[in-house]
Amino acid sequence: MRTLRSWIRDLFLSVLISFFIILFVYQPVRVEGGSMEPGLEDQERIFINKLVYRLESIERGDIVVFRYPRDTH
Q1: Do residues 32 and 42 touch, judged by C-beta distance below 8 A?
Q2: Which of 36, 50, 63, 67 could form a disulfide with 40, with the two C-beta atoms 3.0–4.6 Å apart?
């Protein structure tokens, strides 16, 4: 029983840390469409750094990721 509690505690902590990292630090995204070619290809996967823009402003040449507001899914 003690081992089961340990596993559940570790699983809960790892899920909590993962959510924190995805919400505030890094997030994987997939490039959809060819609008960023030749820099980024269609269906390429990249990681975005969310933390850096809390510390400094967006500059020329940075890649900005956003969700299309009319996307139903």
Answers
A1: yes
A2: 36
Residues 6+ apart with CB under 8 A from 40: 31, 46, 63
How many Cα neighbours within 13 Å face the side chain of 69?
0
- Continuous segment of H or E residues that includes residue 48: strand 45-49
What is the value of pTM for the model shown? 0.56
Please tell me what DSSP assigns to residue 33: S
CA dihedral 60, 63, 64, 67 (to 10 degrees): 160
Peptide bond into 69 cis (omega under 30): no
At 72 the pLDDT is: 66
Amino acid at 1: M
